Amino acid sequence: MELTERHRQYWQKNLRITGILLAIWFVVTFVMGYFARDLDFTFFGWPFSFWVGAQGALVVYVIIIGVYARYMNQLDHDYGVAEAEEE
Question: By residue range, what is the domain housing residue 14?
Fold first, then answer.
């Protein structure tokens, strides 16, 4: 099966959003975690570095999942490959 130009565009957009979200994940997981101990101030009664490591990263992960799901649903709809909705 040969890929049409439309398939290539769909796949390129899919790879682009995946790359962007993986870069955000990497920064939140490794870069923020590495520099978190330098964030030396209190946030809601806890050291900010603890909050970033324990809570902030989890919030960002959930946001990443939501952004990806929403973007891919819209992309599927735009390219006519969305799943049929059941009523």
Answer: 8-78
- In this structure, what token pair is assigned to residue 82? 């969305």
Q: How many domains does the chain have?
A: 1
User: How does pLDDT run across 7-51, given as a tens digit for each residue?
Assistant: 899 999 999 999 999 999 999 888 877 777 777 777 777 777 777
Query: Residue 49, Cβ neighbours under 10 Å: how many?
Result: 19
Amino acid, single-letter form, for residue 22: L
Provide the whole-model pTM. 0.78
Decide if 1 is inside a domain: no
Helices (H), the chain: 5-26, 32-35, 48-51, 57-78
β-partners of residue 42 are: 47
